[in-house]
Structure prediction request, 383 residues.
Amino acid sequence: MKSSLLLSVFLRRCAESRTIVRNFSSVVLKRQVPCLPGPRGMHSRFSSGGCSALMFRRHGVPSQVVELESLELPSVGANDVRVKMLAAPINPADINIVQGTYAILPELPAVGGNEGVAQVVEVGCQVTSLKPGDWVIPRDPGLGMWRTAAVVTEKSLIPLPSDIPLLSAATLSVNPCTALRMLSDFQELKAGDTVIQNAANSGVGQAVIQIAASRGLTTINVVRDRPQFNQLNDRLKAMGASHVITEEALRQPQMQELFKTCPKPKLALNGVGGQSATELLRQIQHGGTMVTYGGMSKRPVTIPVGTLIFHDVKVRGFWVTQWKANHAHDEKAFIDMLDELCTLIRQGKLTAPVCNQVELGDYRRALEAAMEPYTSAKQILVL
Ligand SMILES: NC(=O)c1ccc[n+]([C@@H]2O[C@H](COP(=O)([O-])OP(=O)(O)OC[C@H]3O[C@@H](n4cnc5c(N)ncnc54)[C@H](OP(=O)(O)O)[C@@H]3O)[C@@H](O)[C@H]2O)c1
Prediction:
């Protein structure tokens, strides 16, 4: 009974997310709350002009199904905001949505992209929390951020301070939030404790390294072997990584040497699955936790029986979209988290992931690069 209730709540939220996507990506159909003409003069009954957007009309290979199209924007209603997009990343979830393999899918046609930063250009007459010039990020996924401009409701946006670097702002609301929550909500960690993670060079992994370092945690960072391993090792260590090892080294008995210098991990963060996750599980200390947040290898997680029986390891999952939905009525929790991350950014303790900035017109190359292995760089559309 309880699980069917949970399922229906989840499905309703999925349906709500789809509604958001449909509203946002529709061309001109949008319910308007009328404004009386007033001194602010910000509301127009007419179209707010057009924009360019990366749209997909069917699921498939991203570089083949995504097209650059022109869209007309609806007029700015009383509770609406017109924004100019500044920058938006291409994340694995965005790729999976275009492919049609993600947990939540928009109605088609849809504009791609769930994350990014925009600047407010015009506000409706009843908008109170935003003004022209403010930087904003989407409150929820599904807004379709790969576009040059949009008209959205005030409620769908969260203001962000504009004194942080643009690339940090564009990549703040998914990966650093995921890293911060996983380091905060699953194990009580104190300075000196150890966290182990795979996909350590991913956007999430880089945020984990930096937030963990700011808390005095030791991190063991597992990456796939590559010709430029030493370069990657140096880069992650410069961010605050304590140890960087390859997937192969993780399977060697010499790992025990490493644990003479630091305690065994209380927390493991798994963004890969498959054999990599199994090896993480083997390293965790008694009573520790492994949190799975991604499945880049597309392989299931196999749990060695001994880790459950003899080490009482807990196996959990995390989805930042669900966290945001769970806190939809507690906006302060989200704002506090963004404040904490912005403070780290201003202190120089949290930087944007290594990025390739790409013009919108170069989107096919960016979509292909986002799916290449061993790139260690996030593709960011500069709009
Ligand atoms: N649950 C959540 O709330 C949440 C939030 C954010 C992200 N995620 C998920 O977390 C994962 C990482 O996202 P991101 O934006 O941080 O990624 P990203 O910056 O695009 O980096 C991708 C990472 O995946 C690794 N990778 C790719 N294919 C792999 C494979 N077959 N085996 C092992 N590693 C592989 C890459 O390593 P190489 O350099 O070796 O190619 C790289 O470290 C994705 O699955 C994403 O959907 C989940």
Q: What stands out?
A: Residues 91-93, 174-175, 178, 199, 201-204, 223-224, 271-272, 293-297, 318-320, 353, 373-374, 376, 378 surround NAP (CB under 6 Å).
